[in-house]
Amino acid sequence: MPETERVLILAPIGRDAALIAHTLQQAKLDAVPCAAFQDLLANLREGAGTAIIAEEALTEHTAALRDWCDSQPTWSDFPFIVLMASGGDVPPFRAIGNVTLLERPLRGISLISAVESALRARRRQYETQAAIAERYEATSLLARQAEELTRSNADLQQFAYVTSHDLQEPLRTIHTYSQLLQRRYSDQLDSDADEYLEYIANGARRMQKMIEDLLAYSRVVNSEPRTFSAVDMNGVAEWTISNLEASVFDSKATIEFQNLPVVWGDQIQLIQLVQNLLSNAIKYRDKVRPLEIHITAERTGDQYVVRVTDNGEGIAPQYHDRIFDMFKRLHGRDVPGTGIGLTICRKIVERHGGKLWVESEAGMGSTFLFTLKAGE
Ligand code: ADP
What we know:
This protein is 51% helix and 17% strand. It has helices at 16-26, 37-46, 55-58, 62-70, 108-185, 191-222, 233-243, 245-251, 267-283, 341-351, and strands at 7-10, 31-33, 50-54, 80-84, 99-103, 229-232, 254-257, 262-265, 292-300, 303-310, 356-360, 366-373. It starts with 6 loop residues before the first strand and ends with a strand. The strands form three sheets. It has a five-stranded parallel sheet with strand order 2-1-3-4-5, with helices on both faces. A five-stranded mixed sheet has the order 7-9-10-12-11. A two-stranded antiparallel ribbon has the order 6-8. The chain has ten helices and twelve strands. It is of the alpha/beta class. The chain is elongated, with a radius of gyration of 39 Å. Adenosine-5'-diphosphate is lined by residues 276, 280-281, 284, 310, 312-313, 315, 323, 329-331, 337-343, 366.
């Protein structure tokens, strides 16, 4: 809201000023007559809602008034009311901006209505400005918060990396000394002690695997997308299958893929992605059905949707989101795993600007789908 809604009046000749002031005051408006142009200017600087100026008082001061208007904030468009001689030419006052012309002789009702419109217009300018300022404040607060979030995320990622890295050392000590105990003192220990040492060794191994996976996750999170290039997904599939040769052989899996596309990405991470998905398909295969895995791709616009389909145990729909969370598993200790594999997969795809999700029913196999940008 404007600080003041004073109505300044500059009509030095005749009785106009007194009459106008009287009319406005009767309408409960705050009328302030000004004796001369300098007086008007001083009052404008102090604040006003509108100003009524007689044409003859303005002619020689248009430039000074223009200067005052120019000194106002960009959102401001101060409303002037200019009193003209009846039937006169349209004067050059338009240069000062927001001008309403009123012809003499004045009618009280036209005057009051012109003043009220001017005051309302001024009020709207302040309201709009306040709304813009509020919006601006909210936007810059959001931008500041986003910046802080990025910084604290980066700190957290760094923290995760350093801690997982440093945790490896004490873990190695636990592992080494429990093995030493077992080797050197096995003849002096009873079967209970042997069992406890085995628990320690198992726990240490599990923790080692979790730390390795956490480090792998941190590496993906901290990786630079600068290493992106055109990557042939047929090569990625071949490479992955040869990395998994032993478990493909043991599981007697059939893996089929043909004419996979060239995509835009980080080759090492894409191998990591497909390898995680294929080793899951092998790990969670059906006990009876011979395992079959198909990798296919389909273009939509400038990206590909790649599908890795298996005929394994499948995943009930209520777990479709949860399996991508860190450490979330649907299996017990009898099936090895840390629950980070799919978290890493999703991170890799997101760093490539794509999405990863699953379509599956319990007992009906699973299809993991991800999108990647075309590389050609
Ligand atoms: P991990 O394999 O180490 O447990 P993941 O994050 O790779 O961790 O997978 C999370 C869970 O999702 C697994 O524990 C498993 O229950 C389920 N899952 C993943 N892939 C498949 C699949 N192809 N078929 C059935 N279940 C799967």
